[in-house]
Structures are given as C-alpha cells and as structure tokens.
Design goal:
This protein is an alpha/beta fold. It has ten helices and eleven strands.
Length: 222
C-alpha cells in the first residue's frame, strides 16, 4: 500500500518508514501540514498516518480536509489521552486513534485492517517476499525482483496457495494451459531460475510430489 506518514518528529517518521518499507509498502513523508496536503492532492494514497500536533497546522484540520475530498483511511497519532480528544478525532472522520508511545508493528496491523477488502487481495506477503498483483511487482527485503512472465505466474500460484503441493503437471496446466504439450522439466528450470532470484529457500521440493512454499521460512521471518 501507499502510505503517507505525517509527523514533525523525524525520529518517528524514520522508524515508521523503516517498518512499512520492510513490510513491502511504499511510503511518503511530510513534516508539515502544508506538505502533507500537497502529497494528498498529488498521490493516490491507500493510508495516512497523521500526528495531531504539527508546527504549522492542526492534524484535525488535515483529517477534515482529507475526509471532505478523498476516501482514504486515516490513523491519528497523538500524545493526548483524554476521551474528549479521541471523540473529536473520530467525529472528524478518523478511522483509528493511537496514543504515543506505540510500537510500529501495531501501526502496520491497524493500517492493514483498515484497507478495503478489494485492496487487501492485491497484496500478498510470504515472509519477506511481497507481491503487488496490480503492478505485477515482486519485492524481497524491499528490493524489486525481475521475473519473467512465467516465473511470476508460477511464484504467484505457489504464494497464493502456500500449503498446497503442486505437481509439475498441475503447474503446466495452470500456467501454460491444458492443451499445451510441454516437457515437465521446463517447470524444474523455471523453479531453479526463481530460486536464484529469490536467493532463499522459499520454494520447497516435496520429493515425488512437486513444489510448495516453505512454511518454515515464513515462520522464521515473521
């Protein structure tokens, strides 16, 4: 997702950027309300993380502007803890409210829960591997991977069904079509090429059966 992080404390924006980008997201940063509104007007955002106390503008005013003009979820960050402050934020259209201090992982979880279902389905994550289906982009540890069309299709098939073992025949039918007469070893070569580019044991060989995603890798990297 494309996330705008608005906070006048550079230390906070740097930490949040690090966590979101590690999660495979694209980040934009604003340290003032004016620059935040400029980004909102120019970039098709999926999420806004908004501090209420900025040097040039109240975060509530930015939230109100966003909600009047766009359909973008807003998570408010604040040191204010009174129920009246929270209610005011929600009345202005805030979708969630987080009191400082917080852990960055909490913000990511809250942001992902606010994404529309249609958007969630376009982003798939397995360990440090992130696939953006709309852009046909594959990221590993935030680095973009260059896959061929068939490599991408095979990897997407496996990641979307991480517990399922696919035989070579299954992969050929799903990727190349039922009517294609293709040597089964072509699948092995594609898997070999994908493994070289991923540079990790993400794809597991199940001897005598086929290939699947390595669940141990996912668990170890979360």
């Amino acid at each position: 997702m494309k996330v705008l992080i608005v906070d006048d404390e550079e230390k906070i924006t740097n930490v949040l950027v690090s966590y979101f980008e590690k999660n495979g997201d694209i980040t934009y940063v604003a340290h003032t309300g004016e620059s935040a509104i400029q980004i909102v007007d120019e970039v098709p955002l999926d999420m806004i993380i908004l501090d209420l106390m900025l040097s040039d503008m109240a975060g509530e005013d930015i939230c109100q502007y966003v909600k009047l003009n766009y359909d973008i979820p807003v998570i408010m960050l604040t040191a204010k803890i009174s129920i009246d402050d929270k209610l005011k934020g929600f009345e202005l259209g805030a979708d969630d409210y987080v009191v400082k201090p917080f852990h960055p992982k909490e913000i990511i979880v809250r942001a992902e829960r606010l994404l529309p279902e249609s958007r969630k389905k376009q982003i798939i994550q397995f360990g440090q591997l992130v696939i953006h289906k709309n852009e046909r982009q594959v990221l590993l540890n935030q680095e973009s991977l260059q896959l061929t069309q068939h490599e991408y299709s095979i990897l997407l098939l496996l990641v979307e069904n991480p517990k399922k073992v696919f035989s070579r025949e299954d992969i050929i039918k799903k990727i190349f079509g039922f009517d294609m007469d293709i040597n089964l070893r072509v699948v092995d070569q594609h898997i070999k090429n994908i493994r070289k580019k991923i540079k990790d044991n993400y794809i597991q060989t199940v001897f005598g059966l086929g290939y699947k995603m390595n669940e141990k890798v996912e668990k170890d990297e979360i």
